Amino acid sequence: MNRDAPMTAWPRCDRTVAWSALQGHAEAHGRALDLRQLFTDDPQRAQRLSLQAPEVWADLSRAHWDVATRRHLLDLARECGLEARRDALLRGDIVNVTEGRAALHTALRAPKGTGPFSEAVHAELDRMLAFAESIRARAGGDQPGDIHDIVHIGIGGSDLGPQMVVAALGAWVHPQLRLHFVSNVDGQDIAALLPRLKAQHTLFVVASKTFTTQETLANARTARQWFTEQGGTDIARHFVGTTTQVQTAAAFGVTTTFGFWDWVGGRFSMWSAIGLPIALAVGEEAFRQMLAGAHAMDRHFADAPLGANLPMLLGLLDVWQRNFMGYRSRCVAPYSQNLHRLPAYLQQLVMESNGKGVDVDGQPLPYATSDVLWGEPGTNGQHAFFQMLHQGSDVVPVEFILVRQPSYRGAEAMSPELRASLAQQHQALLANALAQAQALMCGKTFAQALAEAAPTASPEVPCEVIARHRTFPGNRPSLTLLLDRLTPSALGALVALHEHRTFVSGAVWGINSFDQWGVELGKALCQDLLPRLDSGDVAGLDAATAQLIARLHGTGTP
Ligand code: F6P
Fold it and tell me: Which atom belonging to ligand 1 lies closest to the Cα atom of 154?
């Protein structure tokens, strides 16, 4: 490739005027911003930096930025051609240049007749949803072939989305169906599950875009072995494949398949046939609502002006926090047990998309890209790592996700007393989230801590020492995303918001957010090492790997 001919028409972000302005702004103001002062100076700050997008209300006022920062970031977006890049994405241009593909996950949720490939998308969607309904209609029945358990076998993008959504929409899940997710090549995962199943009442869904993934094929083989040992014969009925490679699946022995296309990236595929377990769990109507919620967010991303466009603002804020404030990680804290798999889902979305070191042209990047995303649901995280968030040496922005009204499975059958008790728990959950965000921002001064510490002081441990331990620096940033209810539609919008936000920061950085070459080296080395574990052959290996192979093979020193 000609190094002098960049593949994009826009300047690299660090060569823009806005980038320099942001650097100056960060040095002059950004790193000295104090959230408490910002709220004192601008009584309208909370309203000014909050935004309603479809299904998601966002409070961005507790981030370390101000109106000037936002203005510079919007300039950066314009200089980097973000609107044109977004349009190219949504139009189906080849944005995934290293694999020569479009990234058209938005087409999967466009209403019939509106998006690219609409006919093919809706034909396959209708077929998949009809299949899901046919299984649901006889779920829990006594006849052979009536399904009680669904085992979804897949990994990465072929696992995390469906698994996260089925947990999130627990209140919508068919009461006669149990959903299980097996991903790890570690046989402990599937071995623990199989004894709990009955072959004639189990449906295995083998999900793999490529149908070559080691983990998925290994688990599928084990499942098939178990199924036949249990007397199961009708593989076509009890094994379903979701893949772009229907021929490969058929060659493997899975002939009942639902397809999708190479322009659907693995981590963007829960809207396609990969979402089959979601459809099986929650049914056609809820699945279509989830698509509609995502589509509403797509329209917002496509149409809202830059300054009122939530995915744009969040993606730009991510750039500000990473490149100018120097934050290396962000913590996602859904205050919703149903969203307990959301941090894992977002880890793949964000870090596989933007954990890159070269730009689209292959040029090494001199600035930081993806941060580390991690998290746990509240309130559990409070009793684990929130200590570090409040008083640790690193500043880690926290993202609170709140749901105003909970949805419980089987709520109709609950007594009023039980409902009242659960309602109180929900208020406690919300109060905890509010308190954590407040504590992060407001902190506690030494003087306040000293006043509190006085009664507990002893001659051995003076007040001042206790007070130092009880001081909270405050001024720690957070964001809050608020959903009215965690409905299929709201969940669809929330996920689409994160997809677009990730694209935005990746586009600013000039990277291809849709490939994942970084996972390939380990896969290839594994192919070399696997037979060596049997043979004990360590020829040509580095000394550390050779030593471990020798120990594992039993030929090395114990
Ligand atoms: O881990 C790499 C990866 O290629 C992911 O991007 C993908 O989601 C996952 O493996 C599973 O791939 P497949 O769906 O082809 O089995």
Answer: 16
